[in-house]
């Protein structure tokens, strides 16, 4: 894997905060405090779809998605986890892992296009980042 030419799409960096780097993916917290929401971004340049990854790398990414999912489930006790790789607005391969609740603003529909993002306040952001970093490493 040649990560030397890898970079994260600016739209993703503008709307999320760095969490940790796992073996093959960077994790970022989406700046929308309505949902615990993590992006899993494989460090593979010019990758659009999961099927663009080799079987071995795809398996590693899936293991990292599972890890993120378990952390969100354990830390936030959601009613459901949404895991999706859409790429309709940002082509770069990235997987959304979102903790959902029956009483959240979008339930039972997808979170996209429901209201405006509610950015984290400074203290809440620092607390969320710290807690997730400890759980994810």
Can you give a write-up of this model?
The protein has helices spanning 10-14, 55-76, 122-136, and strands at 16-21, 25-30, 37-42, 80-84, 95-100. It is an alpha+beta fold. It has one domain (3-136): 2-Layer Sandwich (HIT family, subunit A), CATH 3.30.428. A five-stranded antiparallel β-sheet has the order 1-2-3-5-4. A hairpin with a 3-residue loop joins strand 1 and strand 2 (25-30).
Figure out the total of helices: 3
Query: How do the strands of the widest beta sheet line up side by side?
Result: 1-2-3-5-4
Beta-strand fraction estimate: 15-25%
CATH architecture label: 2-Layer Sandwich
What's this model, at a glance?
With 137 residues, the protein is an alpha+beta fold. The protein has 3 helices and 5 strands; from the N terminus they run αβββαββα.
Secondary structure layout plus pairing:
Elements: H1 10-14, E1 16-21, E2 25-30, E3 37-42, H2 55-76, E4 80-84, E5 95-100, H3 122-136
Antiparallel strand pairs: 1-2, 2-3, 3-5, 4-5
Features:
globular, 21% strand, single chain, HIT family, subunit A, 5-stranded antiparallel β-sheet, alpha+beta, 5 strands, 31% helix, 137 residues
